[in-house]
Structures are given as C-alpha cells and as structure tokens.
C-alpha cells in the first residue's frame, strides 16, 4: 500500500528541490490534509502539487514499473522525463521532497483487517491502489535498477529470440498462462478465436444485447476454418457530447496491404479530439464528409463471409464502429497474462516482432500500423505456437521494460536503464535509504545511495526524523512479521465473510398476505441483489437480502428501518455476529475515508443515464469520473453507478439533485473505494450459517494476552500513530508514498 502527501513548496529544477502530493498504494494513495476542501477555497492563488488518478485502470492496480514512472517524474519533471502513463502529477515543480515509507511484511489484507486501527492512513491518503506481489527484489523494481539477469537487447526480427529465450534462466512453462490455456502444441486459427462466452465476458458487442440494439452486423456468417482470411482492424476515436465516436478506421488484409483507411466525421459535437492518441485534429477532420454509416456499408461489402477480424482490445473498435462480428482474435487476450491483465500493443510489437510502433516523436498513433501489427502478432502465434511464446518469458520482460524504457526521446537522463538513482545523480543529489541491518537489499550497495542500517524499527524511526530533511529523496523501510500462510488464508476467509454479512440485511416482520413481488422490487431498488430469501422461522415472515455492494445494504437500512411497508412497521438490520458488532463504527469510518469523500453511489440508473447526465453536465460542477459497472456474463450495465467529484460539497449538491423529484434515483455517499471492489472480486464470496463461529472463542486470559503489544492489531495502531507523527514533521511540499508490498506469495 502506498500513500502520498501534499503540501506547498518551492520549485526544483537542476539541483533544486520540488514539491509533493499525497498518494497511497495498496495499491497507491495520496495523503492530503484533513482541511482539503477548505484549503482549496481559501488558497486559490497558491499552486500546489496534486495527484490525479481519475482515469485509472478499472482493476486499480499499480505495477512496480508504473510506480517507478511516477518517482522518476517527481524527481526531474516534464522537462527531462515523460509524464507517468497512469496518473497526472500537477505542478510537479512545486514538489520539494519525495519520501517513500515501506512497511515490509504488511499487505492490503492487513490494511482492511485492521482498518479502524490504521486511522491516519485511511483519512490522510486520498489515493489507494493495489500492487502485484513483490518480486525477489522489490526495491530494485520500484527504483528502476537494472536487473543483471536481463540482457538489454530486444529481438531485431520476427524470427529472432528474446533474451529470456536464449538465456539459462529457469522458466516453469507449466504455470505460464498461455500454456495453461492453449497447451504446448501449435494451434490452428479456429482455436485462437474468442468463444461466445469469452466475447460476453470481455464486453464485445453481440446480437440480442440491449446495449447493441442499433449495432449493424457484418453479415459474415460463413463457416470458419483454419484457412479463413485474417484482417487487421484498428480504429481511432474522439470524445463527443455523446461519448467516444469513430474518427478513423484502418483495415489491413493478411498480405499486409491496406484495404481501407478512412477518416470519419462523428455525428455529434466533438469536445476532445484526443489528438495525442488519435493524431486527429480539427483541421484534419474539417473537410471530411464520410460518416459512420458509410464505413459500415463498405465493411459489409469488403469482408468475405468467413472473415476473421484481428485487433488489440478489439471490443472497443467494434463498439466505435457500432458493428457486430462473430469471428475475432484479440491479441491482448491471445497473449494471455495472469489475473486478467493485458500486454500493451507497443510492448508486444517490440518483444515479439522487434519493431517500434506508437513512437513518441509522432503525433498520435498510426491506425494502419497498429492494424498491421496485430495481424503480424496473430500470424506469429499461429506459426510458432504457445510453447515458443511461453519460452520468451514475456511477463518478466514486460516488468523490466515497463520500469526501464523511456516513453520519449527527451534529452538528459532518458536511457533504457535509467533509474531513480541516476535521475538524482543527474541533478547532483543523493537518495537516503533507512532500513534494518537484516533487510538490506541491492539498493544498499548502489552508487549514489546513502544507506543507514539500523538494529530495529524504533531506530529506523529515530534516524528518519533526523535524516529525512537532509535528502530530497528518502526510502524508509520498516519490517514486520508477516502473517503465516495458514493465518493469511484464515484472515482472507474472515474478511470475505465479514463483508458478506455487512452487505446483508434482514427486514420484517411482514403480514402473511403481503405482496412478495412488490417487496422484492422495493429492496432491489437500493442496488444489485445477490440473494433474497424468505425467512419463515419467525412468527411473521421476514426477508433476508444479500446485496452485491455495501452501499445498497446501508441505503436499505437508512431508507426503510422503522417505516410502514405493506401495512407493517418493519425493522431493517444487519445480522448480529461477532464480525458485525463494530459494523456501525466501520461504516461511519468508511464514509469518512479520504478516498470516498467526493464520491456518491446511485441506484436505479438506466442504460441512457450516462447520456442524460452528459446532457446536463453544466449542473454537476466538479464531476471527475463516472463508473458504470457491467455484468461480466451478459455484458449489460448494472443498475447502479458511482460518480466522483472534486470536492465533498460538489458531491453533496449532485446527490441532492439526483435523488430529487426530477431524477428520482436512490443514492448516498460511497463507502467502498474502487481498489477494494477490485480486491474483493478476487476473493471468492464466503457465507456461513448464523451463529457459526469462525474460530473457537478464547478463554478470558487468552483474550487479554492477545491484546499485548506484539499483537498485529496493537502493532497496526502503534505504528500508524508513529508514522502519523513522522508524516506531520515532513517539510511542506513533500510527496509521500506508503507501500504495503505484502510477501512473495500471492495473498
């Protein structure tokens, strides 16, 4: 987990220091002062460094390489280094110092297990993200130190081998996700096609879906064989008043020839040309008369009945075209990764084909080049087979490349193996590394690093108070005993059960002749329901409703508890178990979490809600992001959403409007950050019978012994307070991150 901290400060260019903002990674996050909204209003003149992650990926995961991007940019700024790809650091020149706290041995599991004890971290840090499990040298990854086992050169041609393929590095092919999906033997074209179920899962447009009612089928309904023709497809889009719309399409035949390359005039008003991605400008698009319907008509003529479309994240291209096509190969899914992540097209092009695409010195992407590249990647996969791909060890190479490869050709320290240490060295500065003697890593012996080894966490803390003000960049590492594998499994299970019980409500009593259908509709109006059962063990019937999100359960309690329903004054409450006894306190603290302030939850939103909201965007000032979850199986939009605003006041005003008589939605302030949703999705839902204990109750003496100073709960509270004091001693303008990297095993 990582936090950052924000304050005002002076500028840093060559040799001068700069200013910070808050961020914390449980993932990563930004720590802001408690008077954030007040400061915004009272100090509009002073520029402050600020981190924005509004457009961050859905899974809310920050890789070690992406974290390294932020740190490098924080050190040198845009004049010498490219901006991070996953976030925006505004007014970087106001940063003064960078401090990274690493709580070695702790993970996201600890943070939510002891959420109430980590009071300072959850309130001060505005951005929180997940991180992948740490590698053998976690510090080297986030600092960008070149790994000795990786040979720097990439293949020069399609048939060339990668460094990993020719090295002696031991690779367990059996565990490679490509082998697990396709096996070791070469596969034919039909095996690479996405199945209908996969197309549903990844939100491809399909016939019969409500969000595809106006989509046009390509009429390609012939029989596909391993000899069917492949066509590479890539589209560029702009942002209009109705969302993303097509501005360019490129279609490349299997021989490499471009059979279609058209600019397209959107039907609605353009609000952002997205030139940095599309290369499209107002001047380029002004004389264009081709419309979407013209492109659709031409594609239906060009594509043979058994045509197979190949693309990278092809679902987005087909949705921009508003077309449905049954036979697709998506290279972002063909070269499959673990945990649903995907390789970037730029990386695959370099790693597999040995070619550079999407070069930073060009304005935007070349759609024809991208389409041709996806086609070549598909052909490579078919020619060499899964075993060859697995031997390349793409995952390790991607991790290295992401942390090392610069994104443009700016002068200065931008080389393939540039690290944070080299960035600091280029401006005549040093990195401070405080750690315990036993935990020293490769960073300790690195050039330009002042390492101070301590005997205990207490000594690390004392040294940090003295040394941090003397260095522009500091890494302070505390070490804690991690949960054992068995305890980790048990803690995961308990958190899953606790979250399920917190999202469950019992309602009643109801009359025996009540309208059950009307009651179900009523409770579903608060949010998505996982399970609803009728309880007949009581004198009068009750309902048990298990919601998908905590906000829905809380909204049902707040709206209906003590209200007359179907002729009965009902009580709506959560089940009372040892895991929900502190539920009211936890809900209140979740609402005050810095990441939730400014975010609202709405239920009852329709398929057209997004368009309706955009049409009235002028009354929703400060709207930063709209999160519309979709069902993974059907691809349909769920009936709820989250809206994120710049300030709590803007969120409150929007909530009042949206739950008023004109919009008639149900809503409240958010309780669950996005990264928590992503983490909980990765944990299988658990349930238990009421009254069944997770662990046997300890004796009174054992219970008191558990609350000694070495207990993890006490340690979380104790060190949370220590870090808070250290944080408040940091000078104004310090970028502060707190990392809870976990352990090498996946938790």
UniProtKB/TrEMBL annotation:
Entry GO terms, CC: nucleolus
One Pfam family matching this protein: RNase_T
Highest taxon of the lineage: Eukaryota
Name of encoding gene: REXO5
Protein name (Swiss-Prot/TrEMBL): RNA exonuclease 5
One of the record's GO molecular function terms: RNA binding
The species this protein was found in: Bos taurus
Residue runs in coiled coils: none
Stretches assigned to the RRM domain: 503-577, 598-668
The UniProt record lists the keyword RNA-binding: yes
């Amino acid at each position: 987990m990582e936090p950052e901290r924000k304050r005002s400060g002076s500028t840093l260019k060559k040799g001068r220091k700069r200013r910070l903002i808050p961020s914390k990674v449980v993932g990563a996050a930004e720590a802001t002062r408690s008077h954030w909204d007040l400061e915004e209003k009272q100090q509009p003149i002073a520029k402050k460094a600020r981190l924005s992650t509004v457009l961050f990926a859905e899974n809310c995961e920050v890789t070690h390489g992406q974290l390294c991007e932020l740190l490098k940019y924080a050190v040198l700024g845009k004049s010498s280094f490219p901006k991070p790809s996953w976030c925006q650091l505004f007014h970087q020149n106001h940063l003064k110092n960078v401090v990274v706290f690493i709580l070695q041995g702790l993970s996201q599991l600890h943070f939510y297990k002891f959420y109430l004890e980590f009071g300072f971290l959850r309130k001060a840090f505005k951005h929180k993200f997940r991180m992948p499990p740490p590698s053998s040298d976690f510090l080297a990854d986030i600092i960008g130190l070149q790994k000795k086992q990786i040979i720097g050169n990439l293949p020069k041609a399609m048939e060339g081998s990668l460094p990993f393929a020719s090295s002696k590095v031991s690779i367990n092919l059996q565990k490679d996700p490509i082998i697990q999906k396709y096996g070791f033997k070469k596969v034919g074209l039909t095996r690479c096609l996405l199945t209908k179920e996969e197309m549903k899962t990844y939100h491809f447009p399909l016939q019969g879906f409500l969000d595809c009612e106006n989509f046009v089928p390509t009429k390609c309904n012939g029989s596909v064989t391993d000899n069917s023709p492949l066509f590479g497809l890539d589209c560029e889009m702009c942002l209009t008043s109705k969302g993303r719309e097509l501005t360019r399409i490129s279609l490349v035949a299997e021989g490499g020839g471009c059979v279609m390359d058209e600019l397209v005039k959107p039907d609605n008003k353009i609000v952002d040309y997205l030139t940095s991605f599309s290369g499209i400008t107002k001047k380029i698009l002004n004389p264009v008369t081709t419309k979407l319907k013209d492109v659709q008509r031409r594609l239906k003529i060009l594509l043979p009945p058994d045509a197979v479309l190949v693309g990278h994240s092809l679902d987005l291209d087909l949705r921009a075209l508003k077309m449905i096509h049954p036979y697709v190969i998506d290279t972002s899914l063909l070269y499959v990764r673990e945990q649903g992540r995907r390789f970037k097209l730029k990386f695959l092009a370099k790693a597999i084909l040995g070619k550079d695409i999407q070069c930073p010195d060009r304005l935007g992407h070349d759609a024809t080049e991208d389409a041709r590249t996806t086609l070549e990647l598909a052909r490579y996969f078919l020619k060499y087979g899964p075993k060859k791909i697995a031997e390349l060890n793409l995952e390790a190479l991607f991790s290295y490349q992401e942390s090392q490869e610069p994104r443009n050709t700016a002068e200065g320290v931008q080389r393939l193996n540039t690290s944070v240490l080299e960035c600091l060295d280029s401006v005549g500065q040093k990195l401070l590394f405080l750690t315990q003697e036993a935990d020293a890593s490769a960073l300790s012996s690195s050039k330009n690093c002042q390492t101070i080894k301590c005997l205990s966490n207490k000594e690390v803390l004392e040294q940090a108070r003295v040394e941090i003000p003397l260095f522009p960049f500091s890494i302070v590492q505390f070490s804690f005993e991690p949960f054992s594998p068995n305890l980790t499994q048990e803690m995961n299970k308990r958190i899953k059960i606790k979250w399920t019980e917190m999202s469950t409500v019992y309602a009643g009593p109801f009359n025996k002749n009540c309208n059950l259908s009307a009651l179900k509709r009523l409770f579903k109006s608060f949010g998505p329901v996982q399970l609803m059962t009728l309880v007949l063990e009581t004198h009068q019937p009750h309902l048990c409703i298990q919601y998908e999100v905590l906000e829905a359960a809380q909204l049902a309690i707040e709206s209906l508890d003590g209200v007359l329903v179907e002729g009965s004054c009902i009580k709506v409450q959560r089940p009372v178990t040892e895991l929900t006894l502190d539920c009211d306190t936890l809900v209140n603290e979740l609402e005050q979490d810095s990441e939730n302030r400014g975010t609202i939850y709405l239920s009852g939103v329709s398929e057209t809600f997004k368009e309706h909201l955009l049409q009235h965007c002028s009354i929703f000032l400060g709207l930063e992001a709209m999160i519309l979850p979709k069902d993974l199986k059907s691809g349909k939009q769920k009936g709820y959403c989250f809206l994120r605003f710049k300030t709590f006041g803007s969120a409150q005003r929007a909530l009042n409007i949206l739950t008023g008589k004109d919009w008639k939605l149900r809503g409240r302030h958010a309780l669950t950050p996005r990264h928590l949703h992503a983490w909980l999705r990765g944990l299988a839902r658990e349930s238990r019978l009421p009254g069944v204990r997770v662990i046997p109750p300890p004796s009174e003496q054992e219970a008191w012994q558990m609350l000694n100073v070495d207990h993890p709960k006490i340690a979380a509270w104790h060190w949370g307070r220590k870090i808070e004091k250290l944080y408040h001693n940091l000078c104004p303008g310090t970028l502060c991150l707190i990392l809870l990297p976990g352990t090498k095993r996946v938790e």
